[in-house]
Request: fold
Amino acid sequence: METAQDTIQQNEAKAETSKTLFKGTGSQVLLNGLIEEGVTTIFGYPGGAIMPIYDALYDYADKLEHILVRHEQGGIHAAQGFARASGEVGVVFATSGPGATNLVTGLADAQIDSTPLVCITGQVFAHLLGTDAFQETDVINITTPVTKWNYQVTDAKEIQEVLAKAFYIAKSGRPGPVLIDITKNAQLQLEEFPEYVKCNHIRSYRPKPKVRVEYIEQAAELINSAKKPFILFGQGVILGKAEEEFKAFIDKTGIPAAWTIMGEGAIPTSHPLNVGMLGMHGNYGPNVLTNEADVIIAIGMRFDDRVTGRLDKYAKQAKVVHLDIDPAEIDKNVKAEVGVWGDCKETLPLLTNLVNENKHEDWLAKFRDYNQQEIDQVITPELYPTGDEMTMGEVLRNINEICGGDAVIVTDVGQHQMVACRYAKFNNTRSNITSGGLGTMGFGLPAAIGAKYGVPDKTVIAIIGDGGFQMTPQELGTIMQFGAAVKILILNNRFLGMVRQWQQLFHDKRYSFVNITSPDFVALAKSYYIEASKVDERANLRQALETMINHEGSYLLEVMVGRENNVFPMVPQGMSVSEIRLK
Amino acid sequence: MSTENTIEHKIDKADLEGKQEYTITVYAENRIGLLNRIAIIFSKRKINIESLNTSPSEIDGIHRFNIVIHESYEVVRKLARQIEKQIEVLKVYFNTNDEIIWQELALYKVSTDEIAEKVTVERLLRQYGASAVVIRKDYTVFAVTGHREETDALVKALEPYELIEFVRSARVAIIKDSAGFHEKLKEFEAFEPGEELVENEFLDKGQKIFTM
Reply:
């Protein structure tokens, strides 16, 4: 028979186990969750539908640094720069309606470049959903094609679990952007919340495919039998944090390795087996020899059309081994003889164990021969020009000489991007940050701000064209207010240079709307209280660059470069990689 | 289970170049918005969906989609991988018509007078294996299950006799040759019960709950 005393004790014990650890609003539990996930920096912009979260943020200022950007697009590009430089998840806040729609470009960019982001958008009250309320937009449906996952929270009780899932999805497997839309009632709702639990499993989600040893064995056999093997590596090496494993693999096999622009920096530029850049504006040797290699080993890259050129003439002679964490990438564009599904951090060491040590001296010499032709015909004239006009290449050469390959270089999109990727030297991984897949003009300045928050001890140089800079110049205001010491280098050719190059080469020099005038960039920067100067003569270039890099805070330097310089080599669109032009 | 190497290579069987009918079977969590996510995979590539059926599977919280498209093997294989890649999708199969058993349900509304008066109609219906679902004074509804040709043939046959209304369902299909996903689903349910679907409970509450 149960006594009254027993019942009281049982009730007390029950109360003990169900004790909630936190009582607060949905907004507070969201911010607690971010802290639990290790977030320290948030980029964002407040507004009506996210005001309860911002209100709560007021009390979290000592734990969460919020950078008020000048436009939500700037906020998400900054979070991308942060994520790419630091390897952590970037976090963005935006309000409903226009705030959320302004994130779309950055989401698309992060999706195609596999950048881990968690975006939190405010939404109108749940009872107003679907009524075309003030600043209501169907952000879930708008962002579905450009997110890895998204979810709308209408009840505060969902927030913890959804946030934990969001972080897990954003950073696991092939990373990507995730968006959580939280209605205003859920932000305000007062609840008792249990302890925050991180997510490490979702029933329907297998971030890493099971590694099949038989495919590794087949791959090793193919690699060991190859006379002219060639490695193409992409960002998968960096995202998998497999730089060491990758280096061990190439060092043992002695196979020449070329990179996509997203893979640049995974091994140092100076590595003897690093033979250069692939693709449309890549190096001569790697492109031509793609169509000569007998075995191609593609690692963490996705055979983008800017890399392959015409697919029906791409490496038809080669047997392809493709290592990728995303099974949907294998055979998507180029048919693989052997597909090795898995995280290259796991698969590369297994493969390294099974491959023979080799040197491939004769084959490497071919790359050097082609490289010499490129040096003579393209690289030397670009880096050491003899004419009066400054070239983008010589600016990069000077940066390399001053920084010695240690700077983080963030580029915008266009000719300067290709020049920077071709000529910048990198000693360290995560040092090349660029908009690869989407080619987003306007990415450079905000991404550089984010990168500086991601790696505050490194020198961050944003290299931007005069066109791209004018897409997001308002972020100078963010620098002014929050003091990110970003070095901004505008390479000004007074044209939308890459479009002009195409018009020159493929549209009979009909320069249709590529002539762009610019404001006084120096005065603009100074109006934001950012130090600035301008160079239009070679004699002053080196000194100006040193001043910029050695300056303690942020600095803007505008360099006037040749108007109609072109980026070569070039694989014209619709041509084969072996038809790459040196001129 | 998603991303295991289980989307089989059926290159020997399949017609690599030519287009044919494929039935894609998707097992997925019952989540708001997932249908849109899957539909986008087709629309992004400008591929038309011939028919789409989505309904609960034998396990709570898991839905089964049957999507019929007319495409080449290569395209379908890539689509299947893209679908399986979605977070909330558990498993995707794709099959040609000779690899599945499938049915569509068709309903035919015809004038009861016509039926009563004209014996040939009765015979027609028997011939097509139709069953009466509703018999009213003014009309009768018949149901037929079968392949498209069969249900189409009955439409043609009934047209002279005042076919008032006709509707056909999307395809439901079962794969002939695999062990199926049933065992896997049961394992999931035992070890990883699904989460409850959260719908918007505030939708019709108006200003009663929260006001600015």
In short: Chain A touches chain B at residues 125-127, 129-130, 140-141, 144-145, 148-150, 152, 154-155, 158, 161, 169, 183-185, 188, 202-210, 212, 326-328, 331-332, 341 (CB under 8 Å).
